[in-house]
């Protein structure tokens, strides 16, 4: 019987394809079928870069895929990472902003610091009727690091000398300076020779300050008078009391003392008392190796407050006295020695 050449060629071709599917070991190549099936399930078209992975590359690729999986699982998602970092990047502790311009820290009238200064001033009134006769419209704290440091150093030295707590106690005094000298005093401190009073000691070797905040000058204020007072923080240290009839040579400053006060100061009970201003002054000085210092360190400028005197009649009206009704009643007694 004659053979059909095409049939014979087809059988040879089928045999050849069947032989190629079985390697020498006799096992069929399953990777090709699995790859084709996966491609069909994913909708991939054969011949678009999907080739059979060689056996020597399979372990390396599996390790690479496992490493990528671990890296992906350990790193947070973009949304999670941004959520975690957002509080750390944007959260800030709110701070109370205060207006401070160099030497001064200006205090708003409604601030607690402003009210504290008014309380200090009113607590050093000599006359109870002064309440409401003054209005305070502007205040600023003085930040002079050099003077503050020297004040602390002076206190430490006095403590090392065995001074008592009463001698180391801090208090306040007041000064109504010429307008032209105010800035200089705040920057450089109060130096000897700033006044001409000599009741308690030579003004060329010490400084004078007012004990009472409503007794800032010899003559009473006229209605409508205004200006700036400086509040000083002071330590009186060891005090020497001076009599009115004490000879001038007996009131010279001595290294054993830090402050002179008048023995007659307690007799001053009114703003109109005889020599009320002079007798209530306080005199400060400091020695260094038996030589007088040009600026006593236990006198430090603390604040500047602007005031206006409105008189007794204005104090009697409710509107003028309203602001001072909130101040403690201790203000009329005075805390000075």
UniProtKB/TrEMBL annotation:
Q: Where is the composition biased (Polar residues)?
A: 71-81
Compositional bias (Basic and acidic residues): 9-27
Q: Write down the InterPro entries for this protein, in alphabetical order.
A: TASOR, TASOR_DUF3715
Q: Which protein are we looking at?
A: Protein FAM208A-like
Query: Which is a Gene Ontology cellular component entry for this protein?
Result: heterochromatin
The species is Pundamilia nyererei
Annotated segments matching region Disordered: 1-91
Q: Composition bias, kind Low complexity: at what positions?
A: 31-40
Q: Which residues form the TASOR pseudo-PARP domain?
A: 157-301
Q: Quote any Pfam family the record assigns.
A: DUF3715
What biological-process GO terms show up in the record?
A: negative regulation of gene expression, epigenetic; protein localization to heterochromatin
A molecular function annotated in GO for this UniProt entry is: chromatin binding
Q: Which domain of life is it from?
A: Eukaryota
